[in-house]
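agent> fetching stored inputs for the tryptophan docking request
agent> found them:
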Amino acid sequence: MEKQRILTGDRPTGQLHLGHFVGSLANRLKLQNEYETFILIADVQALTDNFTDPAKVHANIDELMLDYLAVGLDPKKVHFVLQSSISATNELFVYYLNLVTLARAQRNPTVKDEIKQKGFGDSLPLGFLVYPIHQAADITAFKADLVPVGADQLPMIEQTNEIVRKFNSIYGETLKEVKPLVSEFGRLPGLDGQAKMSKSLNNCIYLADSAEIVEKKVMTAFTDPTRLKATDPGHLEGNVVFTYLDAFGQDKEKIAEYKNLYVQGKVGDVEVKKFLATELNNFLQPIYQKRLELAKDMSKVRKILATGSKYGQEVSGQLLTTVRQAMKIVELN
Ligand code: TRP
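agent> prediction call returned; pasting tokens
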């Protein structure tokens, strides 16, 4: 039986961090063995809120590829695709725009939140409002069966499937609906204790951080604000140091021991943080070293993206042909 196909993607707007690892990369490492996997670098989508800063988007395409390969996503199993190289998506997008009302686009809860957060007010660019429709074009172009996503992306899947049903009801069975594969992995809090690790909150440990930087950052981590001296009994809930130890630490026995000492007020924050820095670096150093090694030959890295994109062009080109036929678009030749 043929493997089912999955599609995931990221906007190239920054390097990947431990939050990405927990939220999506760990899942992808597993899925690449079970599914035919497409990973899309969504540079066109990134421009919808970064169109005045194309240099940032451009630079982060290399960074994303380095992060992907360094964590162990394998080009033998994964097709890495650059969104801007897939012209079929842009054409599909134009056809799909007819199938979505303005009111529906404005109802997408994720976009609604983002619009509020970014404070667009009356100057909301249309490109931003309709990026989920462009994303629907991505998802259908690659004929994905499953889209592994975080909860914030569920509205995109829902909107995609509405477009699929509407398209099929007007032009005949052409597109297929997709299923979300909601990540069972959790969300990692930021170094400062905020719910989310996020570049804009400046509370991240990046996959590209050196051992020294990791050590420095760990020393600033949020622990237990009620604890004034090392002899005060400490709390583990909401304590970033222990959350990270649980997520990335290997020495489970020692972690349990430190938890015990901590709640009894028998170990200081600094000692536990030093232990966390060691454990984190045990996890991160192989990734960091591999990243350095890969970065020495960027032409090889870019070739991987070019090869995946070429395959992506083929697959999406086939789908576009069937869409054009269904829509009675004239083929001149
Ligand atoms: N919107 C996704 C994000 O912000 C990125 C993305 C673009 C994507 N196209 C996709 C994800 C297709 C899954 C499938 O992370």
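agent> quick read of the result: Residues 7-11, 40, 42, 45, 135, 138-139, 147, 153 surround tryptophan (CB under 6 Å).
agent> awaiting further instructions
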